[in-house]
Amino acid sequence: MPLNDTLARVDADLAAGRIPAARQRLRGLVSSFPDDLALRRRLAEVYRLYGEPAEAGRWMYLEEDRDAAETAAFESRYGTTAGRMRALGWTGSESLAATAFARERLAALRTACSQDLGRPVDWDTVPSAGEEESRPRSLTGCLAGAGCLVAALAFLAIWVNGLIALLD
Prior knowledge:
The chain has nine helices and no strands. Helices cover 70% and strands 0% of the residues. The radius of gyration is 24 Å and the shape is elongated. The chain crosses the membrane at residues 143-167. It holds the Pfam family DUF6584.
């Protein structure tokens, strides 16, 4: 269905109070046209009707006039730079963005994600949640794992010792 026809249906859905239908249509349009900032703005407006500031912030993230509280809610919900990249659903180069502000935001997020992961990333190869979590483990995590292993081995030694005593 052409873009204008779908937008007309979105308008009809909103006028009839069918907000979930309008939201679904807009989500589909944004996934089909990820570089259309006007579609992202309309989707943010629908999420405001739902009372979802994090999702409104997600879809207004590339707009200069975005609400700071909504942006903070989005950044809190998607706590990592890779998570934010996945959530934005951008594809292709930042140069496809219609505004300088959007290009700067996209480039800054991609650069921060590359720094966080210690390797270059781009919008077409956004790391999955599994890749993101494969970063080197912290010393605290390693020590906790080692402590659990020692406790399990101690329990096994006591159990084997008790079994040997029972059999004698």
